[in-house]
Amino acid sequence: MGGKAFQDYYPDDLNQCYGCGQLNEHGLRIRSFWDGEETLCRFTPRPYHTAIPGFVYGGLIASLIDCHGTGTAAAAAYRAEGRGMDSEPPHRFVTASLRVDYLAPTPLGPVLELRGRIEEVKGRKVTVGITLSAEGKLCARGTVVAVEMPEDFGR
Question: Can you tell me the distance from the alpha carbon of 138 to that of 48, in angstroms, rounded to the nearest whole number?
């Protein structure tokens, strides 16, 4: 996964999120990319992301699904308009709804792989389905409903 991640295109004034903000020095700084018609994010949990010994904290799993989902939503909006993520005006999405189903304990240590698929793009709303796997085993599944922030929000 080389090149620029979706999150690298976020405007500086909207790039502080704990999960996906590249300018948050204490954050997770996840990076999402297109992989054909799906999106892909790989993340290696740190030892302090533990729930019980040997397993990942569920809140981290939810955060990864959330932020990969909103990044995917932004990329989908650009793709739907047929323009690059470096074009203006910028798209930036926030979570309207997050559902996470924990399917199996997620081991601490291996790289986690998140895959997103666009379920719906409708106006300012994008619905994304996300899976989270470790070593090829499906551990969690989520749905993110993301809405686009108005251009002048928080500015």
Answer: 22
Q: What value does the CA radius of gyration of the chain take, rounded to a whole number of Å?
A: 15
State if pTM tops 0.85. yes
Match 């990864």 to its residue by tokens: 64
Domains defined along the chain, listed by start: 6-148 (3.10.129.10)
Check if 66 is active-site. yes
Task: Tell which phi-psi region holds residue 42, choosing left (phi > 0), alpha (psi between -120 and 50) or beta.
Answer: beta
Residue tagged active-site, from 8, 12, 13, 66: 66
Q: Compute the half-sphere exposure of residue 96: CA atoms within 13 Å on the CB side of its CA.
A: 13
> How far does CA 19 lie from the centroid of its chain?
8
Give pLDDT tens digits for 34-48.
999 999 999 999 999
How do residues 59-83 score in pLDDT, each as one tens digit?
A: 999 999 999 999 999 999 999 999 9
